[in-house]
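DM from R.C. (forwarded with permission)

"hey, sorry to bug you on a friday — could you get me a structure for this? deadline for the figure draft is monday and I only need the backbone to look sensible"
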Amino acid sequence: MAETIKKNPLSFQLDPSDFLPASDEEKESLVVMRDSVGFWKDGMRRLRKNKIAMVSLAVILVFAVFAYIVPVFYPYSYREQIKYSENLAPFEYSEKEQARIDAGEDVFPHVCGTDRSGRDYAARLMMGTRISLSVGLVASLLVLLIGATYGAVSAFLGGWVDIIMMRITDILYTLPDVLLIILLATALKEPLANLAEQPGFQWMKTLGPNLISIFIVFALLYWVSMARIVRSQVLTLKESEYVTAARALGASNGRIIKKHLITNCLGTLIVTTTLQIPSSIFTESYMSFLGLGVAAPVPSLGSLATDAVKGMNTYPHLLILPAVIISVIILAFNLFGDGLRDAFDPKLKS
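My reply, with the result:
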């Protein structure tokens, strides 16, 4: 019926043909379907599209292999002092090593040369990178555990408890970290030396009081920013319907915080922790540069740079190599953290 009705071109009446049932082809053209994806799958898909973040992740993995896997197969140790091989340039052999080569013996080259004590510099760079990465990862985990717990409890309880806990964080902001590290290193030197003599605590000799004091300062001070970020997230989440339902079902406060609030902050926690790692690495590096890092002969990238400053005019590669590694690692973690932020928590994007 509607097909036989024709509209007068000069009339303001509706066109009857606009009300005809849609054909199958028209219906299919209007259907827009895509696979249902979860939070993590959707975030990983966005992350993979970020080329800068993926290149940064590849760089981080390369340095992880360089620090943790290559030393297992590398023929030189970071402690080994090779006589008559002091201050060699990259891929240079000493006279004694050259004589061994002339005799038909295979001698692995010093890829990055040697330092003034005759120790292979590539092996020391590997160990220094391992120490710096390990400090960054452990310190960031401490910050995550303390800051997330503190911020979630403060926001969930609210009221005067929240006010007191936040005023404590304001006080901690004012404490100078370098001064605390110096004071703690001085105060802990003798007790840690005595404890390191006990069975099972010999590993403390490797770290030394300076590095342990750095970990303590991270646990005391550096979680404040994490606590504030988690608090702001939990203040919003605790008013959600699923939290009200959990309360109605009799769930304890601890279970609500752990199972419902912290779990729904995972995206923010991952991003903030990743961005905390380069900050921790930089802190350890400049502390080691000032002589407040790991105990000799264990190197870190900062202590390697300190030792190289004295001979930077004669052997500049000894300073350039650790400086470049520190810069590239920190840049890679920052770019990867930005990529994670854009992928998993776009609301944090500035």
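R.C.: lifesaver. The mean pLDDT is 81.
me: no worries. Residues 121-157 form the longest helix (37 residues).
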